[in-house]
Amino acid sequence: MSLEQKDLRDMLEAAIVAARLAGQHAMERMSFVKAIKKSEGELVTQADGECQRIIIQRIRETYPDHGFIAEEGDRGKMFKRAPLGEPAIWWAVDPIDGTNNFAHGIPVFTVSVAALYEGEPVVGVIFQPATESMFTAVRGQEAQLDGRRILACEESIGPLTSVGLDSHFGDTLPAWVGEIIRRSRFRNFGTTALHLAYLAQGGLVAAVMCTPKLWDIAAGTVIAETAGAVVTDWNGARVFPIDLDAYDGRAFRLAAANRETHARLLEAIRS
In this structure, are residues 181 and 169 in contact, taking their beta carbons and an 8 Å threshold? Predict the structure, then answer.
C-alpha cells in the first residue's frame, strides 16, 4: 500500500498541531521544572514526559493504529510501540530536543515530530516554541518555515558562514573539528533538530552530529533534504531507510550540509 499526497498532508497537519500543543506546554512549565540525570551526558525533566504524552495522545486521536518511537520511556529507555495495521506508519518523537537548555531556563529547544513509512521519514515538523517558528516538510513537496518555502544555501564554509557542531566529541577533539572552528563561525545551539532546521533554512551551511538518536534526526532529515541539503553518515552513506522494527536506540554520526559543502565536509572528516 502506498501513501497518497492527501495522506501525507493530513499527517503533517496532525504533527503540526501536536508539536504546537507540546511546545506551548513546555514554555508554560520551563520556569518550574526540575531536572534529573538520565545518563552520564543527559538530563530529563518531568516536562519531557508530559510533552511526549501530549504528542502521542494527539496523534493517536487520528491514527490509533500507528506506531511510535520516542525518547522518553521507562527507566531511562526509549518508548516503542509497533504499528497495528497497514500501512505501517511509525512516528519518531522528541518532545524536547535541547533538554539541557530547557532545564537551565534557556529557551533554545525544539519539539521534533516525524512520520516514517518503509523506514523513511516522509513528514517532518520541528517547532521552536520560544520564537513560534514552525519548520515543516512533506517528502516530494516543499520545505517550509511558517508556511513559506525555504531552501538550503549555496555558500561554502568560510569566515562569514556558520557550521553547527555537536557537543559530544569525547575526550579528544578531532583535528578536523578544530579546522572547522578556525575556518567558520561555528555554532552549537544545543539541539540537533534546530541545527538541521537552520541548515534547511540557509542559516547554516553544514552541521555535524556525533551521537543523535532516531527521534533527534528524523524530522530534521526530511526537512533538510526537501530543502535541497544532503544528509549522510560520516562515511557518506544515507542513514535512511532504517529497520524500525529492529531499532534499539542506537546513535548515528551525521554529516549534513548544502550541496556545495557536503563533499568537502566529508573530505575533512575522513582526513
Answer: no
**Alpha-carbon gap, residue 47 to 213, rounded angstroms:** 20
Helix spans in the chain (H):
5-29, 46-62, 99-103, 175-183, 192-201, 214-226, 262-270
**What span, in angstroms and rounded, lies between the C-alpha atoms of 100 and 141?**
33
Query: For the CA atoms of the chain, what is the radius of gyration?
Result: 17
Distance CA 176, CA 30 (A): 36
Place of cell 492527501: 6
pLDDT above 60 for 1: no
Average pLDDT over residues 160-168: 91
CATH 3.30.450.40 fits 163-270, yes or no: no
* Inter-residue contact 190 to 101 (CB < 8 Å): yes
**Which cell numbers hold the place of 238?**
544515507
* Segment among 60-64, 70-74, 233-237, 265-269 with least mean pLDDT: 70-74
Give the C-alpha separation, 16 to 137, whole Å. 11
Buried b (16+ CB within 10 A) or exposed e, 23-55: bbbbbebbeebebeebeeeebbbebbbbbbbbb
pLDDT digits (tens, 9 = 90+) for 109-126: 999 999 999 999 999 999
Among residues 200, 210, 224, 216, the alpha carbon closest in space to that of 176 is found at: 210
Biggest CA–CA distance in the chain, Å, is 51
DSSP character string of 236-253: S----S--TTT--S----
The fold of the 5-149 domain, in CATH, is Fructose-1,6-Bisphosphatase; Chain A, domain 1 (3.30.540)
Residue 99 grid cell: 533538554
Q: Per-domain residue ranges for the chain? A: 5-149, 163-270
DSSP state letters, 214-229: HHHHHHHHHHHHHTT-
pLDDT tens digits, 76-100? 789 999 999 899 999 999 999 999 9
